[in-house]
Amino acid sequence: MKEAKAAADRKRSRGLGDDKSFKLFSGTANLPLAEEIARFVGVKLGECKLQRFADGEVYFQLLENVRGKDVFLVQPTCYPVDQHLLELLIMIDALKRASARRITAVVPYYGYARQDRKDRPRVPISSKLIADLLETAGANRALFADLHAAQIQGFFNIPVDHMFCSPVLVSHFREMNLPDLTVVSPDAGGVERARHFATKMGAPLAIVDKRRTDMNVAEVMHVIGDVKGRTCVVFDDIVDTAGTLVKTVDALLANGAASVYACASHPVLSGPAVDRIAASRLTELVVTNTIPLREAAQKLPKIRVLSIAGLLGAAIESIHMETSVSTLFN
């Protein structure tokens, strides 16, 4: 057993460049992240052709042999969500029909994850539908980063590896060495996520009581916990329109917080998000590159991007070499 582990470690240290059974492909959703992952694992991205007909139909063709290969396909389903989701499904279908031995969908951002239950009458459970589509297309395995709801893993009948971006974020904020730190959950639903982050940071936890009046509209009610004179870090998985984030910042400062930082795994940043963040009293928003920032967000000094390519690359190596990924959670 020890010899096998040592051999696996030696193989990892060389990267996967010499492994003829491994292939890594990318869609168009986040090519820079896929290229960074490829550099980490020591391979070149697989060659393919992805184009669109005049009416918007997707055309995809693999330009190299994948028969019998262990294939990983990187494609977050970020904006435009439906377009990137369809690309992912079509690419998986092409790999299946080209006789790939195993197809792992690497989806750093899982669209439709917020629709994981029937919270109103006569609504779909869209995240379950997406899981069914990925399996029907031919995915044999899936790798996700910070699912909005962890129970989405149960929607799949194939193995799912659920990675967390928190190790990257924890490392960053430890290096910042912020004084009198308090971690804040922006709502009750994110308490478990924020508590885990607070434990890693060795900081107390506060909660903002939020009541949503409509989709993408939130009203902050009050702060649970002592934040007076504290440096607060609001921890969430998704920043979409930034309405909740900005009102959370205002509520914390109104309760005496010295300064407010925020961090999130997925910078969706749709609609007025960038303008809201720019105009807010937020000191800095730290995000990861699961989703590529749009041009306006890239120009905003308040937004800092950390890379999770190493985290995903290490997970991909472990999955390919059939070793444990549990060490990557620390």
TrEMBL record:
Location in the cell: Cytoplasm
Cofactor remark from the record: Binds 2 Mg(2+) ions per subunit.
Stored Pfam families: Pribosyl_synth, Pribosyltran_N
Alphabetized InterPro entries for the sequence: PRib_PP_synth_CS, Pribosyltran_N, PRTase-like, PRTase_dom, Rib-P_diPkinase, Rib-P_diPkinase_bac
Binding site residues for ATP: 55-57, 114-115
Main location: cytoplasm
Superkingdom of source: Bacteria
CDD domains membership: PRTases_typeI
Positions that bind Mg(2+): 148, 187
GO molecular function, one term: ribose phosphate diphosphokinase activity
UniProt keywords, alphabetically: ATP-binding, Cytoplasm, Kinase, Magnesium, Metal-binding, Nucleotide biosynthesis, Nucleotide-binding, Transferase
Reactions listed under catalytic activity: D-ribose 5-phosphate + ATP = 5-phospho-alpha-D-ribose 1-diphosphate + AMP + H(+)
Pathway assigned in UniProt: Metabolic intermediate biosynthesis; 5-phospho-alpha-D-ribose 1-diphosphate biosynthesis; 5-phospho-alpha-D-ribose 1-diphosphate from D-ribose 5-phosphate (route I): step 1/1
Active site per the UniProt annotation: 210
The keyword Transferase appears for this protein: yes
EC code: 2.7.6.1
UniProt-annotated binding residues for D-ribose 5-phosphate: 212, 236, 240-244
Quaternary context: Homohexamer.
NCBIfam families tied to this protein: PRK01259.1, ribP_PPkin
Family (UniProt): Belongs to the ribose-phosphate pyrophosphokinase family. Class I subfamily.
Function description: Involved in the biosynthesis of the central metabolite phospho-alpha-D-ribosyl-1-pyrophosphate (PRPP) via the transfer of pyrophosphoryl group from ATP to 1-hydroxyl of ribose-5-phosphate (Rib-5-P).
HAMAP family assigned to the protein according to its UniProt record, in alphabetical order: RibP_PPkinase_B
Protein name: Ribose-phosphate pyrophosphokinase
Natural source organism: Acidicapsa dinghuensis
Gene transcribed to yield this protein: prs
